[in-house]
What we know:
The protein has 464 residues and is of the alpha+beta class. It has helices at residues 29-39, 45-56, 72-78, 131-144, 148-170, 177-192, 200-212, 239-249, 318-328, 402-406, 425-430, 442-445; strands at 27-28, 81-82, 223-226, 229-230, 254-257, 274-275, 282-284, 287-293, 301-306, 314-317, 337-344, 350-361, 363-366, 369-372, 378-385, 408-411, 419-422, 451-454, 457-462. Helix 4 (131-144) packs antiparallel against helix 5 (148-170).
Amino acid sequence: xxxxxxxxxxxxxxxxxxxxxxxxxxxxxxxxxxxxxxxxxxxxxxxxxxxxxxxxxxxxxxxxxxxxxxxxxxxxxxxxxxxxxxxxxxxxxxxxxxxxxxxxxxxxxxxxxxxxxxxxxxxxxxxxxxxxxxxxxxxxxxxxxxxxxxxxxxxxxxxxxxxxxxxxxxxxxxxxxxxxxxxxxxxxxxxxxxxxxxxxxxxxxxxxxxxxxxxxxxxxxxxxxxxxxxxxxxxxxxxxxxxxxxxxxxxxxxxxxxxxxxxxxxxxxxxxxxxxxxxxxxxxxxxxxxxxxxxxxxxxxxxxxxxxxxxxxxxxxxxxxxxxxxxxxxxxxxxxxxxxxxxxxxxxxxxxxxxxxxxxxxxxxxxxxxxxxxxxxxxxxxxxxxxxxxxxxxxxxxxxxxxxxxxxxxxxxxxxxxxxxxxxxxxxxxxxxxxxxxxxxxxxxxxxxxxxxxxxxxxxxxxx
Length: 464
């Protein structure tokens, strides 16, 4: 699954000028590079450096990062270049592990403590999506007579999964499994739209391109669309390009295709409330507090995020989204919608919510005042869900994976059910409690060391 990553610094306002609509002519990056090489003797040294930048650009950079910038004319041309040829091939899978077998002359091994040294249930040499290979390996494992019952259960699951996949693939003959998954997801997204949504013709065009074979699913690359028309070839996503294209084509009907998973990723899967061991008269959720704002605005709002739910994105609701705009006086200047994403809930239900890029940061509150944990706000994808039944804000706020992708994080069995986060590796280990001690106040110990702790108590969930 796609995971949130560090954002790049924004280009200064006015870095890009408006350009005319790019043509739909396709041109591969390798062809473009070859063409530039033939003409290089006629160009100035400055232009040669720009060409060299294009050749050495790594499209496998984290989300939004780039080693170069474009002038308006260069961007206009580069939008017609496909980066598919420049994608680094995936690392090859390791060789198969040693195969262990239990001789027929001995009883089958059924207890994990009796398995041979080095034996495990993993299949690192197989692609997890290659169901035929996974099924064949299960059959071999069952014959090996080591923990065979576990592999029989695994085989049952794989056969069910293959039957379901074959039925879905039959609806889109001749297409790859990633493309079929994406078409299935886009179909659900299309049905979720209101009748006047400007992205209806855009999503229909994207689906038609997938079915014709003109568009393929390529991890790490995106295509930009507006009003049902493709305005770029596959390319790495960059925040400054996104902002520029939205300002040029407008928000209505604008879409970034391929930025997240082709299949609905997981949303909140577990919300468990129980007695708080430190305060028996209260109930708690493990949470942390994040400060969030829309790009280009000044004032953030603080939100309490439920932690470690299995959610693939940070999530707020529409009331939270509106309040950020009201606080900054920007109700008529909301950030552009990136796309709509299907999200699978714990019971298998798929819901469809819009995704926006918002800026987040964490603050440390100590005896000597407040300090930002990160030197700058970071831009990340955030799901905005509908308002809850009561019409108020704060319905379902999920922290998603950002906290653990960005910080050293730990929970400590000291009776307080606190989280410890640190941006500095040595500091992180220095302040970890080493024994059960309900009286330890991690936030005080960690002051001035870029560490914070978040309370796990929700004052709205009191038994008294």
